[in-house]
Amino acid sequence: MRTQVAIIGAGPAGLLLGQLLHRHGIDNIILERQTGEYVLSRVRAGVIEQVTMDLLDEAGVGARMHADGLVHEGVQICVDGVRHRISFKEMTGKAVMVYGQTELTKDLMDGRAAAGATTVYSAHEVALHDFSTDKPRVTYRTGGATQEISCDFVAGCDGFHGVSRKSVPARAIASHERVYPLGWLGILSDTPPVSDELIYVHHPLGFALCSMRSPTRSRYYLQCSLAEDIDSWPDDRFWEELKPRLDDEARERLVTGPSIEKSIAPLRSFVAEPMRFGRLFLAGDAAHIVPPTGAKGLNLAASDVRYLAHALIEHYKDKSDAGLDHYSARALARVWKAERFSWWMTTMLHQISDNPFDRKIQLAELDYLFRSKAAATVFAENYVGLPY
Ligand code: FAS
Ligand code: PHB
Question: What distance lies between CA 259 and its chain's CA centroid?
Answer without folding.
Answer: 22
